[in-house]
Amino acid sequence: MILSVLKIFVPTVVAFFIGMIIVSPLSHYFYKYKMWKKYSRSSENNEGISTDFKKIHNEKGELNTPRIGGVIIWLSASITILIFFVISKLFSTDLTEKMNFLSRNQTLLPFFSLIAAALIGISDDLLQIFGKGSYAKDSRVYRKIKVATIISIGLIIGWWFFYKLGVSYITVPFYGYLDLGYFFIPFFIIVMLAVFSSSVIDGIDGLSGGILASIFGAYSGIAFFNNQIDLAAFCAVITGSILVFLWFNIPPARFYMGETGMLGLTVTLSVIAFLTDTVLILPIIAFPLVITSLSVIIQILSKKWRGGKKVFLVAPIHHHLEARGWPSYKVTMRFWVIGIVFAILGLILVLVSNQF
């Protein structure tokens, strides 16, 4: 038990300090090459930007702050994972073997998902940083390309779950197994799209980092109680890496997470939810992500079906609260509180439902 706990917490601390070490050179590089967006969301070429959004939007910050800070997260996590793996191979002892948490049955798939999705995400970021024309301005066509990319990723990983891991079912809390058969793959894609849609939460300094840290922290606990110790360590390492990002993302943000961070983390979160068989409890654990995504959907449907009428002053909901007069720090910290409470609630539900 003690060794299992150390296997989770030691790499977490290592990931945090590695992240703190690599921030300085990476941050210098980000600013040296001006790795921020060249077009604001409130620019004249973007349609549908409301007056309320323009009032709360920090255009100066958006156009002068690097947008690929998510590199800090997945790079520090990757370095940590590889350090423990290499040590276990070069200095093979019982202790080093047990501290290595890169395993084929638990962490190889989410690790691959993190890196693959993060690299795809960084190509998106670089396009918006150095690209020109409508694609660099996040046009509707380009948003469709991003959706197609997520579907492709979900198809590959869902296929792996179904054909390689033999997973075709999900657990319904307090009920039991529900076999989806071949529908498991499209269901996996739907979940991945839904989780990625919540990436719009990356709209206020410090907001996404705090929320995602509590979510991955909760999943570390869930994996631990499922006796998936390697996966628990993996989730904890991501949490430690996110805390590094959060340290520098608190206002005024030194950099934003960008697609390389949000795509990497949301895809990985989807994989972890299926690996822990808690996908139906994910909406509770990730409740702030759910309400953020739902607020955008409600706003779009309301404007379409109610003759342009809006439910929120600005969507997502955190911008609505800003438009209502809440300071950004109040929105952020209250979202953090909600995120922690629902992450704990989700953890409790998993533990209780496992007893039935």
Structure commentary:
The chain has about 350 residues and is mainly α. The protein has one domain (about 1-355). Helices cover about 70% and strands about 0% of the residues. It has helices at about 1-30, 50-55, 60, 70-90, 95-100, 110-130, 140-165, 185-195, 205-225, 230-250, 260-275, 280-285, 285-305, 315-325, 330-355, and strands at about 170, 175-180. Strands 1-2 form a two-stranded antiparallel sheet. A hairpin with a 3-residue loop joins β1 (about 170) and β2. α4 (about 70-90) crosses α11.
Q: Summary?
A:
This protein is mostly helical. It is built from 15 helices and two strands.
> Strand order, biggest sheet?
1-2
- Largest β sheet strand count, sense and barrel closure: 2 strands, antiparallel
Percentage of residues assigned to helices? 55-70%
Overall mean pLDDT stands at 90
Proportion of residues in β-strands: under 5%
| Low-confidence segments | none
Q: What form results from the Cα inertia axes? A: globular
Q: Helical element count?
A: 15
What oligomeric state do the depicted chains represent? single chain
Radius of gyration: 20 Å
The overall number of domains is 1
SSE topology string: HHHHHHHEEHHHHHHHH
Note the gap between the termini: 24 Å
Number of strands: 2
Structural class: mainly alpha
